[in-house]
Known about the structure:
Strand order of the largest sheet: 4-5-13-10-11-12
Structural class: alpha/beta
Bound molecules: pyridoxal-5'-phosphate
Strand content: 15-25%
Number of helices: 11
CATH architecture of the largest domain: 3-Layer(aba) Sandwich
Mean pLDDT: 95
Distance between the termini: 47 Å
CATH class of the largest domain: Alpha Beta
Amino acid sequence: MPTQTGQERVAALTCFSCGLSHDPTKLNNVCQRCGLPLRVDVILPDGTGPSAIDEDVASMWRYSPVLPVDRGSSVSLGEGWTPIIEVEEDVWIKDESGNPGGSFKSRGMSMAVSAAVLLGAERLVVPTAGFAGAALSAYGAEAGLPVTIAMPRDTPSAIIDECLSNGAKVHLVDGTIADAGGWLAENREDGEFDVSTLKEPYRVEGKKTMGYELFEQFGFTLPDVVIYPTGGGTGLVGMWKAWDEMEQMGWIEGARPRLVCVQSSGCAPIVEAHGRGAKVTRPWPDPVTKAYGLRVPAPIGGFLCLTAIDETKGTAVSVPDPVILDTMEEMAAATGLDMCPEGGAAWAAYRELSASGWIEPGEKVVVWNTGSGTSYQPL
Ligand SMILES: Cc1ncc(COP(=O)(O)O)c(C=O)c1O
């Protein structure tokens, strides 16, 4: 086991793009030079292998030795260590719907709020497509920090109510998460720390536990393909980072799962950029989808998603909304899982890629159901 604890495990905060180093003892958002996301460089345990995992902890904090915050300092509501269910031969759903706040966003927010508390934040704000706000309101309440959330007016009311009942201040804007971000940029008060997707470095550290968890649940191997519904991209980037760390520690060798980014045809900036072989995304002009988590027209980490897709020899697929919603309902009825529209999109992409032969018979595939469909009320 490593001797370092908590924040002492952070070697550096480095810009993913230009490499500029930032002071990890301070609250940071994006790179001071280029405005792009920062990476947390964790001092990884040496030579322990997967025995570093604390099997007695039934949450993402079982991976504490590879996380930048120690479990003893965590703000936790029991997030992660979610079920993985084989729904067809060689095809699994990784089901995140049972997480606190109803989605995988709790992993990133548990970590971000834990780090923010250690670094002295007093108030937290976030623009959100919905679930990230629900998660932040829960962890803010647990940490005793006031939270302000800006979100689209058409966010399902069950999610808005959850934020309010957790004591957050909620501001509704016309438009998308991008407009919510614009509202916060103008209205954020001094002393409020912004934990936006990839504009705050520690959320990726929470999301990377999905990559570790998959490895452990697969009997210390990895599947051939991972299909993931992508909006801002923290999940994709987090898993890619996890596998990179696992290789550095000698837990795995070369081969990684091929990462599939799934978006709605109504808002698909990463799919569009991937299709023309670009390294960066262009803002999507008219974002429309009921899979609200995928309605992210200008993801700041789009370039990282494109790199992760390329490096793993993955691909990017868009699915029309009617197919997303039909697939969600069909899969919920067929499996009994609380499927969300984003999970429906991922399953529809799985079907398309198997039909086209991109996924070959016998390949092991994991499809992500990132949140709870019952939170989408009314849809
Ligand atoms: C249910 C759901 N799935 C997927 C996503 C996309 O998340 P990411 O930022 O990791 O791409 C979101 C984001 O809001 C979401 O709420």
